Known about the structure:
Elements: E1 5-8, E2 10-13, H1 23-26, E3 37-43, E4 52-53, H2 63-70, H3 72-75, E5 82-89, E6 95-97, H4 101-108, E7 115-122, E8 127-132, H5 143-146, E9 147-151, E10 157-160, E11 166-168, E12 172-179, E13 185-188, H6 204-210, E14 223-227, E15 230-237, E16 242-253, E17 260-264, E18 268-272, E19 275-279, E20 285-287, E21 295-306, H7 310-317
Antiparallel strand pairs: 1-4, 1-20, 2-3, 3-5, 5-12, 6-13, 7-10, 7-12, 8-9, 8-11, 14-15, 15-16, 16-21, 17-20, 17-21, 18-19, 18-21
Amino acid sequence: MYYPLLTQPYFRHGEATPWGGDKLQLYFGKNSPDDRTGEALEASALPGMSSIIMNGEFAGLTLEKVFEKWGENLTGTANFTLLLKLLDARDNLSVQVHPDDSYAGKRHGKLGKTEAWVILSCDEGAKIAYGMRPGATLDDADMKNAMNWVTVAPGDVYYVPHGMVHALGAGVQVYEIQQSSDVTYRIWDWDRVGKDGKPRELHTEDAKNVVRSSLSMTKLPGATVLCEGGSRTYYVEDENFELCRLNIAGDMPLPEGRMLFVTPLQPCELAWGDEVMELAPLSTVVIPAALKGVRIRGDLTALLSGTPDQAALRAELGYRAENVAGLV
């Protein structure tokens, strides 16, 4: 009954992402609607912004609708708590911050947002805003110089917990795993204006209520373990999600009992039971928690996100757990 769900993304584009570009189509093969497409929501069950299933008996249904049918057999939890995106920033994103679950729940009736980024590609010298400079506040007149700017490279991984001020800079394309939430507080938007000639709305008071301006972090080193079919490098294992890089050389079994998102960076096969699915680079498959015996085959790198199992990973890594964000 249960099977891997190949998804078609929901796109945010045009006026919704004035900073977006055309690389989701040119680089990643996505059927994006225009050349200002900033986000492909690869695995989303957000109402009105849900991914579409492309295969099997549920082809044409939204991921949100499949969750209604499968429930915990899909997610392993009572709710659909995760969201996976690919982003293309042709221009700088607005400087923003996200709330925790408590604030977002009281203010909006939604989850907060903690997220993590894997840099997929970027222009030489491209940067991200990653926290604030020592002593800087949201009241600073020069927000650009209040940010801590970090030069990035393909393969870098960054953890962005709630309360951390952040922004993608121009020329960066990322894989983003986050809590399933659309709550964002915009602090500064580079003085951009929309078609109506007016600046986009800022959310200064909410931002001040949730910001943790003293947060200071660096890119994640990760912790690698050998396994059947290659190795796994873990980067994040907090209470919200797991983020892992699979280094596959042959035939690797995937974890069971949890919902997983698998995004290969090269062509590969996904196998379960007597079934085999061919996967193209940068496609996304949702593995239901109730499905067992799934394997990924080929010589490739894949990104894996999913619901966490902190106790199991802490036991597996031992002292190396300190290299995984959220685990210690």
